[in-house]
Amino acid sequence: MTSILQPILFLRVLPLVLLASALATCGGDGGTGTTVAEPHTWTAAQSMLNPRTGHTATLLADGKVLVAGGQSSFTSVLASAELYDPNTDTWTQTGSMSTARTGHTATLLANGDVLVAGGAVTTDLTLTNTAEIYDSTSGTWSATGSMNLRSSDNAAVLLPNGNVVVASGTDAELYDTATGTWTTISSPGGDGYYTSANLMTVVPNVGVLAILNSLPQQYDSSTNVWTPTNPLPGVQYESGPYQVNLTTLKDGTVLTAGGFIYPGGTQTVFPSVNTAFIYQPSTGAWSTTGNMTTKRDAASASLLQDGTVLVFGGTSDSSSELFDPSTGTWSATGNMVTALSINGTATVLSDGRVLVAGGIAVNSNPNSANAPFSNAEIYTP
């Protein structure tokens, strides 16, 4: 359950993706002599070099994970970046960004480099429109063209043509990788609230599907136009759900699950939901599917190599669960090492495991806020 009084001091909305913790070594099979983890379990990985929340995590072509920016405390925004090596379960420092930022986007480009854009440069939400490129070969950053608008907590995806679309609930821009420039494109519509990194996904042969402010829309990269599509069954724009997630499944359909409902009026408590829906791109229609075992909002969702979807976080416990598209059902899987509240990152590694790093842990005291942590853990399917 989300309270409007709960501290949300990192960004307008803490980026949707959530997460975990830990202190020891991971049970991997990367030749380090550690024990191979049992299936459907979470194990502790080495902690990051810095506590982080509001950061990004990007899987690179060599199998390492680039973690950049975020906040290390309630008052400090980071420019630093680090690399996780799954083979050795170690973190190493890499080049720092030229601009400290949190709540930015990070997109792996077709050439293996990473585009980082926007975000907040201070904890009082001073926004930036700057962007920079991480060279995965040299480990250095270089400036690229700035966006037309300052923004944070956006969603970004790589298009099939190699360009990048970045969108909030009110604005959208297109990054041309050939020229390093940004172009403002048609607005998705909405009020700009409750957008985050996991609210936009590429749908094969269709374009981009986004749920911005609970409004499903499709983006056509050939025309640069957003078109509203059918609403979720039984959902009203004003009530939500907000802070859902979107996952393109192997058959090209899209899963969305969880979120919270805005009751309206002067209500200060927003109830989480466990509902889930499937989007069929060929018809533009949504259908209900099985409910999650736990109510969650701003949960993290990752498509695993076997086609199932791992969902965790966004709740007050350490539970995680799996969605099976073949049956439309959810089942509980292993508990996380640390109960994750919000704002970590989830990265599917090359070997199919899932790395979760940073974020904010569940706090037993609703009247206080936990600081960001450096913990990391790995889920073994």
Topology:
Blueprint: E1 2-3, E2 41-45, E3 56-59, E4 65-68, E5 81-85, E6 90-94, E7 105-108, E8 114-117, E9 131-135, E10 140-144, E11 155-158, E12 164-167, E13 172-176, E14 181-184, E15 200-203, E16 207-212, E17 215-220, E18 225-228, E19 245-248, E20 254-257, E21 269-270, E22 276-280, E23 285-288, E24 300-303, E25 309-312, E26 320-324, E27 329-333, E28 340-342, E29 345-348, E30 354-357, E31 360-361, E32 376-380
Antiparallel strand pairs: 1-21, 2-32, 3-4, 4-5, 5-6, 7-8, 8-9, 9-10, 11-12, 12-13, 13-14, 15-16, 16-17, 17-18, 19-20, 20-22, 22-23, 24-25, 25-26, 26-27, 28-31, 29-30, 30-32
Structure in words:
The protein has no helices and 32 strands. The chain is globular and about 45 Å long. A hairpin with a 2-residue loop joins strand 16 and strand 17. It has 381 residues and is mainly beta. The relative contact order is 0.18. A four-stranded antiparallel sheet has the order 2-32-30-29, with no helix packed on it. Strands 3-4-5-6 form a four-stranded antiparallel sheet, with no helix packed on it. It has a four-stranded antiparallel sheet with strand order 7-8-9-10, with no helix packed on it. 0% of the residues lie in helices and 35% in strands. The N terminus is likely disordered. The protein has a single domain, classed as Kelch-type beta propeller (Neuraminidase, 6 Propeller).
